[in-house]
Hints:
CATH topology of the largest domain: Aminopeptidase
Distance between the termini: 14 Å
Strand order of the largest sheet: 1-12-7-2-3-4-13-21
Structural class: alpha/beta
Radius of gyration: 23 Å
Mean pLDDT: 78
Oligomer: single chain
Number of strands: 22
Largest sheet: 8 strands, mixed
Amino acid sequence: xxxxxxxxxxxxxxxxxxxxxxxxxxxxxxxxxxxxxxxxxxxxxxxxxxxxxxxxxxxxxxxxxxxxxxxxxxxxxxxxxxxxxxxxxxxxxxxxxxxxxxxxxxxxxxxxxxxxxxxxxxxxxxxxxxxxxxxxxxxxxxxxxxxxxxxxxxxxxxxxxxxxxxxxxxxxxxxxxxxxxxxxxxxxxxxxxxxxxxxxxxxxxxxxxxxxxxxxxxxxxxxxxxxxxxxxxxxxxxxxxxxxxxxxxxxxxxxxxxxxxxxxxxxxxxxxxxxxxxxxxxxxxxxxxxxxxxxxxxxxxxxxxxxxxxxxxxxxxxxxxxxxxxxxxxxxxxxxxxxxxxxxxxxxxxxxxxxxxxxxxxxxxxxxxxxxxxxxxxxxxxxxxxxxxxxxxxxxxxxxxxxxxxxxxxxxxxxxxxxxxxxxxxxxxxxxxxxxxxxxxxxxxxxxxxxxxxxxxxxxxxxxxxxxxxxxxxxxxxxxxxxxxxxxxxxxxxxx
Length: 496
């Protein structure tokens, strides 16, 4: 069993708020109250949607913070119910990250859970950190933004909090897009820890199912085998539990908590449908109040259009999947998940586009890239890297430009492009493992430039068996520690 430091009691709330508060329907007559009351974010402003055929990708983020939307500590009585320490605990980790993919043609939706401890590259290296657990990108970017604002003379705490969170949201979205191989994120939903508590109270009792008895004094979990109804405090314990010293044979990991979150969402949606919640004004208003108090969405999110598109979710037309982990390890004394990027991206691609015959993102074997002239700058300190990469990519349809060496090492690899080469650069960045992309008006027409930093890890198709991982060692060094696993919506699934 993997033990972890005092991380919070884990926000299933984001998932719950996105899928239960939105996806379950919310009563069409209540749409206006919901839409007008939600907090809106401009973190996605200026980004173009890459989804096609009417598909929608929504990133659900659950923050570990014990603070409210304005950065104020939660009331003591609420913290006591959360079993999650005080306002100094938790920070701004995104302990829940889930990509909700809703096909435009009404096919089965996919909710893809990204384990919070997956060790990944962080775009822009916030606070000077180029690789870290994916959950920490939000907090690092928030801190970096606040430092910059204070250095510029900003002292208003509300301004620091709001602009810091906007930077955190942007970082989290970009980190997930890069990690999943360029999957476009059209919208996002964010909720803090107290949101789940409020949601559980609004829902009343929730029926869950466990494969066997389990208990954990840390989260307050104490459950019997089989179906049982949980109140708000017990529901918190159910989704937070990640250890059991009474039944060590259960061998809990953080991935089991992901499955608990998924099971809670499936059960809550099922019960809301069967209990007639959406014809009960009192219960419906309670749910709306939770959403308007605890949920943040991007300003471009058309809730009405999304609700109309996602009606199939009401009947349980959704599958919850947890992404695979190659192995559990330690980096700088921290427990992390090492992953095989090719395996992760192939899994995601198969879930959201199963009929696509193209190779998975990150696998460029046999795939031609859009025409452009490529310049490569070697800033990784490895001899011959620029010219080698030029030739490898020329075989995929690019025109060789200039290969050069920069003697100042850079920690982050990037792709930049001339104004007329954006699409080509985006395709190239995806093929190279989801590198950050930026415009550069100084580049000649039709040119794109790759700066290879010390973090560069070539995909397996370019670099043989040594590429394709975001951890250490080749992807086939050991069998996957935990393969992808799925739960189907529409009922009350039994979990560990």
